[in-house]
Amino acid sequence: MASGRKFYVGGNWKMNGSHKSIDEIVSFLNAGPLDPNTEVVVSPPALYVEYARKKLDAKIAVAAQNCYKVASGAFTGDISADMIKDCGATWVILGHSERRNVFGESDALIGEKTKYALGAGIGVIACVGEKLEEREANKTTEVVFKQMESIIANVSDWSKVVIAYEPVWAIGTGKVATPDQAQEVHDQLRKWMAQKVSADVASKVRIIYGGSVSAGNCKELGQKPDIDGFLVGGAS
Ligand SMILES: O=C[C@H](O)COP(=O)(O)O
Questions:
Q1: How far is ligand 1, taken at its centre, from the CA of residue 234, in Å?
Q2: What radius of gyration do the chain's Cα atoms show?
Q3: What's the rounded Cα separation, in Å, for the pair 133 and 142?
Q4: 72 Cα to the center of ligand 1, angstroms
Q5: What is the per-residue DSSP string for 72-109?
């Protein structure tokens, strides 16, 4: 971490949890102590967003894991940014690799969702990342920049966006990117942002890393100058 960007740590619980397990995590988190220089956000499944929000201390923010691109309508099974806000959460994760690769979400749809969520007053954790075969074919930046194009075209307020670089090959595999591998992509992303958006936005936007982050490896990763936090799955 460097240059005044507040460290950001998100816990993405994915499709896991119950009232009982959430109660346990909430008591642990509420008991703290939390570093006041770190923004902490937890992301329960949608059904538990409001429950977690009501139980957690105000110093811990809540994020939904996904939402659709409009306020309401005939979209069975989905939720909107307006509903997330109504339930007291302030962030949404969009473009997670599981949404892209399991549910087939496109860059264009993720861009539209980003635009709508920001407009509705919800912050966006925008996820990008390459698959193993793309990294092995030296296409990491090509892939990540393409995913980013649809996001930057839809951002109205960069102070409400956190970028999560999550190499797909590192997610849930125990195969964490080395601090140098992650730093390299974060640095390239920040330079790309400086060119495509502005030097000011590039210097202020938080770029967090996700993919097999644990208590054991987070310290070394977090010391890299362009790693501004984490999106943690299993370990959260
Ligand atoms: O959103 C979190 C990422 O998918 C990382 O998951 P993981 O920590 O289980 O590898």
A1: 6
A2: 17
A3: 13
A4: 29
A5: SSS-TT---HHHHHHTT--EEEES-HHHHHTS---HHH
Cis peptide before 45 (omega within 30 of 0): no
What are the angstrom distances between the C-alpha of 130 and each of 127, 150, 159, 215?
A: 11, 15, 25, 24
The Å distance, Cα 73 to ligand 1 centre, comes to: 31
Distance from Cα 146 to the centre of ligand 1, integer Å: 21
User: Of the residues 166, 214, 217, which should be mutated to test ligand 1's pocket, given the most ligand atoms within 8 Å of the CB?
Assistant: 166
| From 39, 96, 98, 105, active-site residue | 96
Cα→Cα distances 79→65, 167, 181, 227, Å: 10, 26, 35, 31
Task: State which ligand 1 atom lies nearest to the alpha carbon of 174.
Answer: 10
1 pLDDT tier (thresholds 50, 70, 90)? very low
Q: What is the rounded end-to-end Cα distance, in angstroms, of the chain?
A: 20
Residue range 98-151, pLDDT digits in tens: 999 999 999 999 999 999 999 999 999 999 999 999 999 999 999 999 999 999
Catalytically annotated residue among 98, 112, 134, 166:
166
Residues 147-171 have pLDDT tens digits of 999 999 999 899 999 999 999 999 8
Residues in the chain: 236
Q: Does the annotation mark 19 as catalytic?
A: no
